Amino acid sequence: MKRGKLSFFTLIEVVVALGILGLSITGLLSLLIVSQKRIATSYEKWEQMHMLAQAVEYFMLMGEDPGGIPEEFFPYKGYRITVSYEDVSDEQVPADYGNLLGQLPLKCMVVTLEREGDGKELDQIRIDRISYESAIGSDEE
Known about the structure:
alpha+beta, three-stranded antiparallel β-sheet, 141 residues, 2 helices
């Protein structure tokens, strides 16, 4: 009886195939790790922006000096919100809009998100808004 020729892979071919498979799995895993880090960073930035937006919404609805933000509006442990107001200079306002009769003053509200543990400033939003309190104070005098 004559048998057909059997074909087998040589040891070198198996080792090369395993090497290629190992390299491709390593590349895939490194891509997964990098994408996981980017997702975590993106989520952290989104969470910080959400906290800031929530605080800005509260301060926009309140007066210029509402004190601190209540815990029911900002329930995030380990973070602190600060708000301050700066005068807007005449150079920042277009000439067409400056010095109009009866114009209310413009102030810049600066809302800052800080981490309580190390006091590091994480993010900040600056919003120009009309100062109604300054107008009320000048009417009373």
